[in-house]
């Protein structure tokens, strides 16, 4: 009988240990289940935040494609100019005038048997001049200067008309696809 009592005691001890082990396992499973539920709620919240962020980025890209890039380039420069300008033309100069001559000229005169003597000859005349004179002008004119340039050049580019717009459309399609994929995921 003594052996039966010890066996019964041992049976009760093992049963108690087994029940305690089962309770501990049950507690751990319940705790793990709650932790998993909390993690799934966090994953679902993260999914919603990520989907909203992807939608916002897609909308921002759409707005950028409809926008413009505006910038003003200010140019303050001095441009040196060193060149030669060939000039080759003919100028027609009309002359229409009267040249008046009123002068006395001393001319040596040889008189036979007398010899040489000086005679004063008065010249009084009016000579009409009516002509056109061609004056050729052939010249190379050197030019050396500095030209100041002060400009403000506005630049207005429509982003939708630039090649980057297609890249933005491609990125937008990827973002929209990710958003749809994430939105379709179900968390059990």
How would you explain this protein's 3D organization?
With 188 residues, the chain is of the alpha+beta class. It has one domain (2-184). The protein has two helices and two strands, in the order H-E-E-H. It has helices spanning 2-65, 164-184, and strands spanning 68-111, 115-158. Strands 1-2 form a two-stranded antiparallel ribbon. A hairpin with a 3-residue loop joins strand 1 and strand 2. Helix 1 runs antiparallel to helix 2 (164-184). The radius of gyration is 58 Å and the shape is rod-shaped. The two termini are 57 Å apart.
**Structural class from helices and strands?**
alpha+beta
Biggest sheet overview: 2 strands, antiparallel
Helix segment tally: 2
Number-wise, the strands total 2
What's the structural domain tally? 1
Strand content: over 45%
What overall form do the CA principal axes indicate?
rod-shaped
| Helix/strand order, N-terminal first | HEEH
The whole-number mean of residue pLDDT values reads: 85
Into which percent range does the helicity of residues fall? Answer: 40-55%
For the record, give the distance between the C-alpha atoms at the N and C termini, rounded to a whole number.
Answer: 57 Å
Query: pLDDT under 50 segments (min length 5)?
Result: none
Q: Rg, please?
A: 58 Å
Q: Strands of the biggest beta sheet: in what spatial order?
A: 1-2
Which properties best describe this structure?
rod-shaped, single chain, two-stranded antiparallel sheet, alpha+beta, 188 residues, 47% strand, 2 helices
């Amino acid at each position: 009988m003594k052996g039966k009592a010890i066996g019964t005691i041992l049976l009760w001890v093992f049963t108690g240990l087994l029940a305690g082990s089962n309770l501990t396992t049950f507690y751990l499973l319940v705790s793990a289940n709650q932790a998993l539920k909390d993690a799934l709620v966090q994953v679902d919240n993260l999914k919603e935040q990520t989907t909203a962020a992807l939608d916002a980025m897609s909308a921002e890209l759409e707005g950028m494609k409809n926008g413009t890039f505006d910038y003003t380039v200010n140019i303050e420069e001095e441009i040196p100019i060193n060149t030669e300008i060939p000039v080759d033309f003919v100028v027609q100069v009309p002359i229409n005038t009267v040249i008046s001559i009123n002068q006395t000229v001393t001319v040596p005169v040889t008189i036979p048997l007398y010899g040489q003597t000086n005679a004063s000859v008065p010249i009084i005349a009016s000579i009409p001049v009516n002509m056109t004179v061609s004056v050729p002008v052939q010249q190379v004119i050197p030019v050396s200067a500095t030209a100041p340039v002060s400009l403000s050049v506005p630049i207005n580019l429509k982003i939708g008309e630039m090649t980057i717009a297609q890249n933005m459309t491609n990125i937008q399609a990827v973002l929209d696809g990710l958003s749809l994929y994430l939105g379709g995921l179900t968390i059990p």
